[in-house]
Each structure stands twice: as C-alpha cells, then as structure tokens.
Amino acid sequence: MSAPQPLAGPLDLRNRPMHDLRISVTDRCNFRCVYCMPKTVFGRDYPFLPRQEILTYEEIVRLARLFAAQGVAKIRLTGGEPLLRKDIERLIEQLAKIPGLELTLTTNGSLLATRARGLRDAGLQRVTVSLDALDDAVFKRMNDADYPVAKVLAGIEAAAACGFAPVKVNMVVKRGCNDHQILPMARYFRGSGHILRFIEFMDAGNANGWCMDEVVPSAEVIRRIDTELPLVTVDPNYSGEVAERWRYRDGSGEVGVISSVTQAFCSTCTRIRLSTEGKLYTCLFASSGHDLRKLLRDGSNDDELASAIADIWRKRDDRYSELRSAGVPVTHKIEMSYIGG
Ligand code: SAM
Ligand code: SF4
Ligand code: SF4
Predict the structure, then answer these.
(1) Which domains, and CATH codes, for the chain?
(2) In which band, very low, low, confident or very high, does the pLDDT at 6 lie, cut at 50, 70 and 90?
C-alpha cells in the first residue's frame, strides 16, 4: 500500500480534506448514454453552454494552481466528453507544470486512438476509458450514438502503447441493459493488463429515470465473476479510494467495483467538482454550486479566490449517498455531463 499524499489545507465540517478536483471542460458529448445524457432530454435543441460562459484555459489553470496550494493532489479532466474541447492538449501542458499534481482524464474513448500520443506528450499521466459492453449491439444501445466497440478498444490499446498502461476501464452496470456483459467484459480484460471497474448505476441528475431495481449491487457483480473466475480482495492503494479492489486468484489481473449506491463512501470523500462554467460543487449530488467565474472575472486577486475556495470547503457537510441509503429524498440534482462524473 503506497503512502498517502501529505495534505495541507482546509478540512470540511466532517474533517475531510480537499484532495481530488474534477474539472468538467465541456458539457457537450458525442454519445448519448442512456444513463447520463438520454436523447429525450439532450436532443438536437438542447441549450448547451455558449462559449463565453465556459471557463477559458487560463482561468482553469489559475484555479488549479490555487487548489493545488490548498491540498489538491489530483486533477481529473472530464465532461461531457473532454476530448471534444478544442486543443485540450494545450490545457494539459499547462496543468502538467503545476508541481505535485497527478493529472488524469476520463473519456468515452471515441477519439482516443488518434489523440493518445498527443495527450501523453502534453503531460497527461493516466487515462480512464468508459466502456459498457463488448457486444456491439448492446454498446450501441447504451451509447445511443451508433458508436462501435472496436473503436473504443482501439483507443484503449493506443493509450496503453503510448505509456498510459495500465488503462482503467469503467463499465456502468444497468440491470436488464448490459448486466449480461459483466462476464464477457471480465474475460476480455483479464490478463490484458488493463483494470476493469464496475460502477453501480447512480441516481445522478434528473434525466436518467433511475430506479433501484436497475442497480446491480457490486456484491452481486463480484459473486457472478467469482463463480467462474475466482477472486480475492486487495488492500486499497490509499485511504478513501473509491474503488474496492479484487484480483484473480490465478494472478491474471485485477478488477474493481465502485459501490456508490449500496455502500456509500461519503465519510472519506475528498472530491470537489468544477463545472464547465466555473461553478464549484462540493458533492456530485449537490443542487447548487458556488460561482467562481464571477470572482475570476471581477478582478478578485489570488488571495481572495483562495480564501473563497477554502471557505466553501470548510462549510461542506455533504453526504448525499449516506442520506440516500437512509431513505432521505433529494429532488433537484445537477446533471453528470455538466458537473463531470
Ligand atoms: N464522457 C466521459 C466518459 O464517459 O468517460 C467523461 C464524462 S462521464 C460523465 C464520467 C463517468 O461517469 C463515466 O465513466 C460514466 O460512465 C459515468 N457515469 C455517467 N452517468 C452515470 C450514472 N448515472 N451512474 C454511474 N456512472 C455514470
Ligand atoms: Fe457522454 Fe460520458 Fe455521459 Fe456517456 S457518460 S453521455 S460518454 S458524458
Ligand atoms: Fe462524496 Fe457526495 Fe458522493 Fe458522498 S454523495 S461520496 S459526499 S460526492
């Protein structure tokens, strides 16, 4: 187990440090995953953010430096689909210069085959690729954009060849849609060096028609794999790691499960999210954010911005998943494609 990063910076009301920053660089996407941006809501005339409302790269880098100075040790670029943002490599180059930061990106993989080399050269350290099925028809039903599996697999291989190995592969499991793909995915990625992680379908946003019946609990995912491919648990890499790790008994690799619904991990949650237009959210399920763009554009200096960020974190009391487990309803939530997964 590697040593945890030293943390300096504010603690929230539940004594949690601010450690991971997720930056959504665009609210647009070329997929319409049924659990994230269903076409019924994100149709042709959906009002995506106009350019002037989106944080510029200079604004993002300025904020990233301030977050790093307050204990953030890891930045994940996400979206929407982050590779759709023009010249994202230019942003990565600048973020990579901030000392002590781990820099990662989550992508649907559609553009990765051609972009992996440039991302690596720009200084990106790790990449996570989302892939929900191996079967083409199932995958196309999930992404609802007629996008074939083969191109995402090519993206994963290109990323590994460019130095991103091991690539993490995220599969959202939705009962009745792709849960019969759990074993084919496990068989395919076992022995490949990539790390497959199964994510419980979450009630993020208000658009995806979530219901508990469609959640496949991680314990069931592990049971199903273990029956054919025996598994043993692995210690977490660090305290607060979101994925629970398992390895194949025969030494052929590792899988993970992210149990946001059935095993809330709010007590160790160190994540904060910056939306495409510069709103700061202290929880994936928050109903409102704090407007940092206003401060960036009204002439506030770095000290003022830094103290605004620290104040927001110190007042943080979020524990949505724990409350959901306790049966407390939350109605208005921000969409995942906007806030960044
Ligand atoms: N477009 C990129 C991608 O798909 O990897 C990055 C953004 S996406 C919002 C980030 C992650 O959130 C993906 O791995 C996606 O599968 C996951 N996600 C989106 N909606 C979800 C939901 N309702 N439940 C669980 N995971 C979800
Ligand atoms: Fe796009 Fe990612 Fe959401 Fe799918 S999960 S619609 S690829 S943002
Ligand atoms: Fe963190 Fe909110 Fe998720 Fe709990 S529900 S783990 S506080 S993001």
Answers:
(1) 20-339 (3.20.20.70)
(2) very low
Ligand nearest to the CA of 172: 1
Q: pTM of the full predicted structure?
A: 0.95
pLDDT in tens, 221-249: 999 999 999 999 998 887 777 899 999 99
Amino acid at 184: P
Nearest CA to ligand 1 atom 4: 108
| Angle at which helices 88-95 and 112-122 cross, to 10° | 30
CA of 272 to the centre of ligand 1 (A): 16
Report the alpha-carbon distance of residue 84 to residue 64 in Å, rounded: 21
What's the rounded Cα separation, in Å, for the pair 249 and 237?
19
Alpha helices in the chain (DSSP H): 57-69, 88-95, 112-122, 136-143, 149-159, 182-189, 218-228, 292-297, 302-314, 320-325, 336-339
Place of tokens 């629970």: 244
* Percent helix, percent strand, percent coil in the chain, to nearest 5: 35, 20, 50
330 has pLDDT over 90: no
